[in-house]
Amino acid sequence: MIENRAVRIVLAGVDAKIMAKMAQDAGGDRVQAVAMGDMQGARLVKSGQADYYLGTCWSGGGGALAAATATLGANLVGIAGTPGMPVTEKHVAELVGEGRRAFGFAYEQSGVAIPMLVREILAHRSRTAGAPS
User: Fold this and answer.
1) Residue 53: which H helix or E strand, with range?
2) What whole-number distance in Å separates Cα of residue 15 and Cα of residue 123?
3) Are 117 and 88 in contact (CB under 8 A)?
């Protein structure tokens, strides 16, 4: 059975409301994006009420992912980019393919990172829809 429900993405960190709009614009009606506090967002992912967490901070790894790492565990989070590490399609695809559910990136990378993450999450969902569990 193919899943038709929109992917639920929470965004936390620097300018979270603007980031949520970017995610919504990138995913259209296939995404429900909402801004919230990092701990609340991480808890929603853990409980299954949200599918993914995207966090921004100035470094891409510290504040962006601290709550998600504490709540979800290090195996479900990934740093998509930092000021010294650009966000790339290959790296994002690897993180999503590994089953990571929370992603952090530096604030200045938001314009590249958010659409790229949303596209890859949607592509991954399409590839795995209907696959045996």
Assistant:
1) strand 52-57
2) 26
3) no
Query: pTM of the prediction?
Result: 0.93
Q: Please, are residues 74 and 104 in contact by the beta-carbon 8 Å criterion?
A: no
Neighbouring CB atoms inside 10 A of 117's CB total 24
| 122: its two tokens | 């949607």
Q: Residues with Cβ < 8 Å from 90, sequence gap 6 or more?
A: none
Q: Which residues of the chain have pLDDT under 70?
A: 1-3, 130-133
Dmax over Cα atoms in the chain, in whole Å? 42
Q: Radius of gyration (Cα) for the chain, nearest Å?
A: 13
First to last CA, the chain: 12
